[in-house]
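User: Batch of two.

Assistant: Item 1 of 2:
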Amino acid sequence: MKQLISPFKQFLTNNRTLLNKLNNKRSFLPLLGIIAAVGCTIYGSQMLTPKGSMSLKTKHNGSTHFLAAFDPAFCGIGLQPAVKFAIPIKSPLGIHKSKLTLYQQGTQKTSTATFKVDHQSWDLQVQTPLTAEDLEKICSAALNGKEAYVFEGKRYLEDFQDVLAKFAPDCQWQSTDQSLWNCGFSTLSAQTALNQIKSIRKAMVFRWSRQPYLLVRRISITNILAKALKNNRPLEALDRACRIINSSLPAELPLSLRSPSWQERACDESQLRETRITSAFLGLSFSIKEISNLRTHLEEETQVGTLSIRIPKQQLPSKDLWVSLRLKSKTDKAEHTTKSCWHPLFTWDSNFFIVAKDLGMVSSETYCLPSAPKARKLDFFPDQYITSSITSEMEFAITNGRGKRLRLPQGDYEYRIHDHQPTANTWYPDHKPSHTSVGTIRWTLRRPKAIIQKW
């Protein structure tokens, strides 16, 4: 408790106007909020590093920078093979407890490292930030009961920054004065986002007759979020936008807005105003990236053509049919379960990180291998996600002998056909089809015309 009160006393001593306001009853309640905020900041930063750890810092150009919290257990009888650090990380989505374990210390220039953040682990190779001589100095200070060790020079700051940059290459890393590393991002303004959405919508309306529903829906939701952040009362507008987001199907949302962490920070009314607005701008910026890249895929990879059904009548159970299409994955499954890095928006599910990577939303430089990846089982690969986002229709009713105009990316598609018996109350048949036909069609980029001729 003394650790909380003493810094606040010093804070009030340096700010006499606040001391005067303490005598004003009307100002007392707002000041309670200031006291709570100061106390939580101090207490929160202490709780992020393990008890008994040693704070490592470096001085450069008159400023002191935090590096990591060192585990003195390394300094037992003989140097241990693994050196452990705690490196608290602050991102727009909150504070993340992070543990770094380095192996192959000593004279080695590189180390095998394990990063653990938010209960997930990654393995990677990094340049060794501390030499054997550095570790001996740290251990000597730890054995003498010191709680901190300060290096001299810019090298240490750069070396730890390089380790973090390999672990999370999309972050703009900066050491803070609160024993944290800040993972920052450049974000778009609300007006810039609205201008880009207007440009994308104009191109889609004037250039394409077959509009992909999922992409159109994601553009609409992103537009609602951008307008909310430009509103004179952004929190009230953000509440309305969040109700739309929460009531939408997952497939209708951009990847960044599906993140549970983003929804918790941006849409929870109990969060601080700055927290909600900062998180919302982060989600908006990555949503714009997604729909912009999907527009490029739509322009370059899709073509309007016709799929026709011409099956002899005697082979059919019904003249009215239901067709489902699914793109055959162009890549091997192993590629989608290995490489990924940490990102506050996308590593809640490693599958979606890989989708974001394929869409150019995250860095293509991937150094990490998940130690024990936690991922939901998805029904699609990244290329199938992109395909479903930019196609006009993948499931539809059709009568034998007719054709259906579609906009699809180039590739091979698995089709499944069964009899269709629509009712007045449902879009899809409520019966279990007894007859089903499966096969493959090819969609080309020049005048595609696929025909299914046999059951």
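Item 2 of 2:
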Amino acid sequence: MTGTDLLSSLVDGSPTWNLASALAIISIVLAGIALGLGRAFSSRRLWAWGTEELGQAVLNVALLAVLATAITFSSGIVNDLLPAGTYLGCASGLPPDTHAAMNYTLCAIQNASLISQAAGSALILQSYKMGLLASLSMDLNVVSAQPYQALAWPAKTFADWAQALGGWEALLEADRQFLAMVAMQGFALFLPAGLLFRLFFATRKLGGALMAGAIAFYVVYPLALGTLMLYGPSAQAGANAMAALNANDQALSVLPASLDWNQPGVIANMMKGLDGQDLAARAAGVYGPMAALQGALMLDAVVYPLMALLVSAAAGVGMAGLLGAELKLDLMEMA
């Protein structure tokens, strides 16, 4: 979906546009009544107030046009930066006017979550295999040995990593749900509410703050977060981690999914197949890539959302001051 969809949605009979139009008509009627009463009673103050409110009503409509143009511009940038179809299919269930930055960011979060799922599944499986090997013992009449006991430590470490990845995945899902909520409910709720409160001078600052918050979290937040994730290291870190895990899994591939303990020679054959696989080195090769992957997921799940939140808050504060300001035409002195 592009910003063009939003532009047509805001102009052509959408609920948001219909509500904004109704509010603008109400404000124009009230301003007209104030102007008429001001002239009828020769009240400069009432006439000036009506003129101010008429200007605010026109400004409300202009703000919608500016907003649609800004979203169209940002969506165009995202479309130019990304290959065609990059963000399609990841944002199902969102309104048809959701802009490209929102769609891409939801897809980027989903991709990071899929990387975490794939690595976590591999870690759990390999932790089980290494733990099983570490528990095996050999009785050589006078000597009892556990040749793979050293794998107990990486087996536990792999299980801990899988648990940690589950935590990052939960945080990524929270980020995704937050963005989906903003796309489906926040913008449609707070933008019309802000327009309503902007119509009345007593609540104009509140209306400006609500509109600024809607714009900041619907446009600025996903644009900032998506940009950070676009240039983040998670994709490469995920590829490196999976390559190391696949190499380790190849060394463990001779270990069957289930062991028939009653079959003669099954353990001996398995150990013969493991001979020369250098299991310790393969397991150690996973440590560096997994540390990099967890760092990348921490950026995607925590650091980047916080940075985007700070940028959005700063933008929202700046816009709130502008959107909640009076026109200050000083018509009392001009009359």
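The longest strand covers residues 138-140.
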